[in-house]
Amino acid sequence: MSVFDDMIRGVRANGSLFGSTTLSPPWALQFVDGAPLTLCTVLGGAGWIVVDEHPPALLRPYDTIVVRGPATFTFVDEVGTAAEPVLCGEDCATPDQGGTRHRLGWSDAGDGAGATTLIVGAYPVRGEISRRLLDALPVILRVDAGGTGDPVLDHLAAEVALDVPGQQVVLDRLLDWMLVCTLRAWFDRPGGEPPGWWAAQRDPVVGDALRMLHADPAAPWTIAVLADRARVSRSTLAKRFADLVGEPPLSYLTRWRMTLAADLLAQRGDATVAEVARAVGYADPFGFSAAFKRVRGVNPSEYRRAVSP
């Protein structure tokens, strides 16, 4: 289990807003819901993503932009367009209906000369685990055409044109694939500054340590055990881990355990604090509560009350 695998597992297109539309200028689509993550890509034509307090971003065929909520944005044929914005949110699709909602509430404005075909997937993000991924992203990230996501877009274009059983499931999975390709390309871009854990995954020593911690976070890890399994000295592991990740291994483990515990407290209302403590590697619920408050600022019971519906 890699760090990225863990963090993205709660970001799934199941239950997402999905739309595909072909627009003839002038046009403007205003996305008003501020979804945690919204992926926008153009199959043909061009348009501009406009987010308040950020420079407009041009999308050409197969370019992809991801917008991180709660920012809302507009997709327009040109900056300063005279078109009246069409509001896209619950009128386009409602995430609680489950699955994708292809063209629900959207209408084709034309497919003549100069038309633009847009695909949008808006992702719900569940839990504190995936919030750590969001924290590593800017409000707008862009990946140009020509990367590993292009074949996915070919599949999306073909699937959108169909009307067959199972289409929603296929579109969901293709959107997941597209998001993963986009984020990987953005993290690996030349001159980029990805989060420490991204680059650390490829280090032969620290990468192994991270995979062990994420594979079994409740294990009784010590620096000595991690170093022995990584086949390096304790001092080498501690220094390389801190240099690449930005904190010592056991500090990282504690924060990760508290992230897991936060999701368990929110999602398993019938679990006692002691049960949650054991699930993340603490035999003593008092020690767990102290660690949770130190990391999260409140004790486990207070956190559960705060996030309960």
TrEMBL record:
Molecular functions per Gene Ontology: DNA-binding transcription factor activity; sequence-specific DNA binding
Domain HTH araC/xylS-type: 207-306
Assigned keywords, A-Z: DNA-binding, Transcription, Transcription regulation
UniProt keyword DNA-binding, yes or no: yes
Transcription regulation recorded as keyword: yes
InterPro entries assigned: AraC_lig, AraC_XylS_family_regulators, Homeodomain-like_sf, HTH_AraC, HTH_AraC-typ_CS, Tscrpt_reg_AraC-type_HTH
Pfam families in UniProt: Cupin_6, HTH_18
Protein name stated in the entry: AraC family transcriptional regulator
Naturally occurring in which organism (per UniProt): Mycobacterium yunnanensis
Source organism phylogeny: Bacteria, Bacillati, Actinomycetota, Actinomycetes, Mycobacteriales
